[in-house]
Structure formats: C-alpha cells, structure tokens
Amino acid sequence: MYTRPMLTYQITDIDHCRSAESFLRNLLPAAPSSYIRKLISAGHLKISGGTVAPDTILATGNTATLKESDRTRQFLAAARPQLDILWEDDYCVIVNKSAGLPVHRTAEAGEANLVELAEHFMAGRGTPVKLRPVNRLDRGTSGATILAKSSSSAGMLGRYVKEDGLGKLYLAVADGNLPDAGAIDTPLDGKDAHTAFRTLARDTAASFVLVTPTSGRMHQIRKHLSASGHPVRGDRRYRGTLLTGYPGHLLHAFRVSLIHPATGRKLIVHAPLPPAFILHLPTMAPLSWHDLLRDIACSPD
Fold it and tell me: In Å, how far are 152, 158, 166 from 261, measured between CA atoms?
C-alpha cells in the first residue's frame, strides 16, 4: 500500500499562538480558502501527531506535518509571504501588521503602506480587491488589523464596531515597574476613557503588560501609559525610552474578537509577536513568555 510522504515543519516563535488555518495560509499563500479548510477537515494537517481544527493554537516546539500531494506541492511557497494573513473570508482579511508600517498611504513618496501591500498580494494570487481598514493601528503599533473587501463589508463591519465594539487585547513593554494590575481612567480629549492592565512580568527597568482598552480614543493606550508614568518603550511621541533596531514602539495588538455580522460566527484571532519585539521582553519569571501568551490565547475571550 502506497503512503504519501509528509512535509514536516517545526513551529518556531514566529508562529507561536498562530492558528492552524493561518499557518497553512502562510505555507500555501496562493491556495484558495476552500482548499486550506479542506486540508484541515480531511486531517491532512497534524500538530505533534494530532488532528486539528482551523482555530487550533500552535506553540513553539510543536511539529507540524502536512500530507504531500501534487496540488499541495504546487501551492508551496519558497519563502514566507510578505503579507501575514491571520484569517480570511469573502468579507474581510485580518493581517498581522508590522511595526513601522502605516496603514494608509502617507505624504512620503514611495513609502510602503499596509493597504497597498495587501492589495498587491491579493492581485498577485488572482483575487484582486479594494481593501478598506476597519480598525486602524498607529504606524508604530504591530498586530491584528482588519481590512474589509468591499464598501458594503466595510459599512457592515464598521457599524458592528461602533455599536458592539471589538474585543481587543494588546501586549506592551512599558518603562518602569507597573503594579500587578490596575486601570487608568484619565479622560482623553474631554471624553471618558478606560484602560485596564495586568503585568505579566517585569525586571528592574520595564514591565511586560497585557492591556485591555474598553473605550476607543486615539492613541489611548499610549497616552494612558504615559500619563501613569510608564510610557510604551520606543514611543517617541509620549516620552518612551528610545529603542535601537526596532521600527516602531513595543505595543502589539495580540487579539481581536467579534461576532461576524454576516455569518454570526464568533471570531477570535491572535497575532504572533514580531521576533524583534521578543528581544526586548523583560525577564520572564516564573513563566516563560511562551507560556504566558499561550495561557492568554487559550483563555476565554
């Protein structure tokens, strides 16, 4: 009996807390969504020997195996695609934005931006579309960014965000030692604003914190942490300690969640940390950052 060979991959930090579906999308960037989901439902992708669901969370050290076929081999990319897709359907695509990359075109001629980068990627794989941001991250902030695929989808998702709000969890490295947990309620621009935080780890100079904004004011997390005396590392505008070798500041949109207004499906999408961000994390004790993030990713929204 002939058994098809298996493609084998070791999960590294760049895929820690990524979903199984996102892992396949990056491995097979030109493959249709239906084919990606078919591979998972048929059990062709296994993680450490076990079958997975599309939203199964991967962890550094896992072994991924994918059943090889002629069609799968056709879709395999020689290198990781420039656009990191976390989730996609006919209405929107959720991508992991790089720090230092603006969402929209800027006044600086020739500067790359997320929307045009994503549109170029979509056109290159044969699915051209005009994209519209639903949640806008600052240039220096990395992480999960939702791009609608049509004006009607943008309107539908925009109404949802305005009426129900996105569930959002951020990770940040802040200057100094924040308390174990707390909230910042300083009004911003004359409006109420609320930011809750929990310190995950700290050293003598910095704190690694999980941040939950429950209002949506401009630069809210950055302003609130700065007002508390603990600005985000690398945040020049709000007096954070300057960084070398990092293109933005150490603030990352780790998770977004919503009830999809078209399908009624609950989406919880996680964005792995940038490798360069990880280099600046405070000392982890008693848990490693891998364990901390996996515990967060596997906890209820």
Answer: 12, 10, 12
The string of pLDDT tens digits covering residues 15-67 is: 999 999 999 999 999 999 999 999 999 999 999 999 999 999 999 999 999 99
**Predicted TM-score of the model (pTM):** 0.95
Residue 61 tokens, joined: 């050290």
- Residue spans of alpha helices (H) in the chain: 20-27, 33-41, 70-75, 114-124, 151-163, 220-227, 275-278, 289-297
| Tokens coding 279 | 């280099």
Contact 253, 271 (CB under 8 A): yes
Q: Which residues are bridge partners to 142 per DSSP?
A: 252
Q: How many CB atoms lie within 10 A of CB 100?
A: 15
How many CB atoms lie under 10 A from the CB of residue 108? 9
